[in-house]
């Protein structure tokens, strides 16, 4: 169970095949880790203030929602593109930007673009069907915005845009979840080739040769320079250096051979006990032992600071690199993706729901709402800062993700979870693939096309 915890929540880096001795040591640390990792998924924020969102059941669900548009074929992009040329979509989107945050999940009988058989990039922990999940109902929903349509994902359109470009995903395991979803969606059109990776898969890069299109994943759950908490390595707190950047990915942004588009996604790691450094000294702490004598600091404020500094620096580097370049750079930031543990996540709390929530049926939690707002506001501020070389966009998925308690692996983050008879650790944080995370990339594509 401990190794499973480590797998799912701490390392997130595919570095799982530990030698036996390490496994034993790891096991010995289990209690510590369980307590420490609590913070990753338990919400330490104050009780939610009265929500500003109307709590009345939304009558428009039945009355005003347009009837589901006749499903465009998922497979065969060319067919769907003939009926709705991408230029038309672009123009329509430019004319009336669609609010994708307001909507509802509706049944969708179409098969997904990929599955565990057709895409081998799916991380084992996300391949729910292969792990024994027999109820695949969670696959058959699509997001229907209230006032407009969200076009089906078109691998051809995405790859056409990505031709001669490089897109990088940067962040935590949810960034990776989204990147792998995109890789699988694109794989249904063109085979990718893994061209580079580091030893523990914290960095990976693929190329779609047919398009000279590149996708990379960078592990950087704190965005700024930091050391992640790891009991195994004796690091009891995240160490965040708020005035330094994580150059492992920052140095790859823009400029010669750099990326053209970055998709950032982070948040969950900021909730873990952390020590904050600035100017060479400790300036605060979150969730620290009292005897350390550090000032308790709001992780929400630190998250905002990290997001702002990251976006400001991206704008600056984009400006510097952009001189003489005709192509605009894109920085997109995926908003917070909520988990759905019903109880204490470290005590085996499950996420047993089998259907999406209806819109209005569930209030967004306080921390989730704040984490989302920080990204939306900081992205807007970066966009308003007047850098023409870089376009900033928020992929505002928090609400639509919050409505999907049914899309997580639950026990099926590993094969035959009930075979051992022991307590099962549920993963109610990441997303099964295929699953709701594919919608993040549907919105990413529309964000790219909307100019
Ligand atoms: C996966 O997709 C392929 C091609 O669409 C299909 O033939 C196969 O039955 C699917 N497998 C599963 C397990 O759904
Ligand atoms: C291939 O794509 C890269 C970006 O990933 C670009 O720098 C390079 O110029 C492209 N090659 C050609 C031949 O266009
Ligand atoms: C914390 O403060 C107490 C009382 O001032 C002091 O005795 C102790 O040494 C301090 N601990 C650290 C780690 O500085």
Automatic annotation (TrEMBL):
Q: How does the entry describe its membrane topology?
A: Single-pass type II membrane protein
Coiled-coil annotated spans: none
Keywords of the record, alphabetical order, are: Golgi apparatus, Membrane, Signal-anchor, Transferase, Transmembrane, Transmembrane helix
Q: Where are the transmembrane segments?
A: 23-42
One MF annotation (Gene Ontology) recorded for this entry: xylan O-acetyltransferase activity
- Region span, Disordered: 62-82
Q: Where in the cell is it found?
A: Golgi apparatus membrane
Segments forming domain Trichome birefringence-like C-terminal:
150-446
Q: Which residues form the Trichome birefringence-like N-terminal domain?
A: 97-149
Pfam families, from UniProt? PC-Esterase (PF13839), PMR5N (PF14416)
Q: Which Gene Ontology cellular component terms are annotated?
A: Golgi membrane
The protein's predominant localisation is Golgi
Hey, which family's this protein in? Belongs to the PC-esterase family. TBL subfamily.
Q: What is this protein called?
A: Trichome birefringence-like N-terminal domain-containing protein
């Amino acid at each position: 169970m401990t190794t499973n915890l480590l797998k799912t929540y701490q390392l997130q880096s595919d570095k799982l095949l530990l030698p036996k001795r390490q496994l034993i040591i790891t096991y010995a640390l289990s209690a510590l880790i369980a307590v420490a990792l609590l913070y990753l998924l338990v919400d330490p924020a104050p009780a939610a203030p009265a929500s500003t969102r109307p709590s009345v059941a939304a009558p428009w669900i039945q009355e005003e929602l347009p009837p589901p548009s006749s499903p465009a074929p998922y497979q065969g992009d060319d067919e769907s593109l003939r009926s709705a040329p991408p230029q038309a979509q672009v123009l329509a989107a430019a004319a009336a930007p669609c609010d994708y945050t307001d909507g509802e999940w509706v049944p969708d009988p179409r098969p997904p673009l990929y599955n565990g058989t057709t895409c081998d990039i799916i991380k084992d922990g996300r391949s729910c069907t292969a792990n024994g999940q027999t109820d695949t109902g969670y696959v058959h929903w699509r997001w229907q915005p209230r006032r407009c349509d969200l076009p089906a994902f078109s691998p051809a359109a995405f790859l056409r845009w990505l031709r001669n470009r490089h897109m990088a995903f940067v962040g935590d395991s949810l960034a990776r979840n989204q990147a792998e979803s995109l890789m699988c969606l694109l794989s249904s059109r063109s085979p990718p080739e893994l061209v580079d990776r580091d030893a523990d898969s914290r960095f990976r890069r693929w190329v779609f040769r047919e398009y000279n299109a590149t996708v990379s994943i960078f592990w950087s759950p704190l965005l700024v320079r930091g050391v992640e908490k790891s009991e195994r390595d004796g690091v009891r707190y995240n160490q965040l250096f708020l005035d330094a950047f994580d150059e492992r990915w920052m140095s790859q942004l823009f400029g010669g051979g750099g990326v053209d588009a970055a998709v950032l996604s982070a948040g969950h790691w900021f909730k873990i006990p952390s020590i904050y450094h600035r100017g060479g000294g400790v300036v605060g702490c979150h969730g620290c032992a009292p005897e350390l004598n550090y000032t308790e600091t709001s992780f929400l404020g630190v998250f905002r600071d990290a997001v702002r500094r990251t976006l400001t620096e991206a704008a600056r580097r984009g400006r510097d690199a952009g001189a003489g370049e005709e192509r605009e750079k894109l920085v997109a930031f995926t908003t917070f993706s909520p988990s759905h543990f019903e109880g204490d996540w470290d005590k085996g709390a499950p996420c047993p729901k089998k259907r999406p929530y209806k819109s209005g049926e569930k209030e967004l939690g306080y921390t989730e709402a704040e984490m989302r707002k920080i990204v939306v506001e900081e992205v807007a501020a970066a966009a308003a800062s007047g850098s023409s070389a870089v376009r900033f966009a928020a992929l505002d998925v928090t609400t639509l993700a919050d409505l999907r308690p049914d899309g997580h692996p639950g026990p099926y983050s590993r094969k035959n979870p009930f075979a051992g008879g022991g307590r099962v650790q549920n993963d109610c944080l990441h997303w099964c693939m295929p699953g709701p995370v594919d919608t993040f990339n549907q919105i990413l594509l529309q964000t790219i096309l909307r100019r």
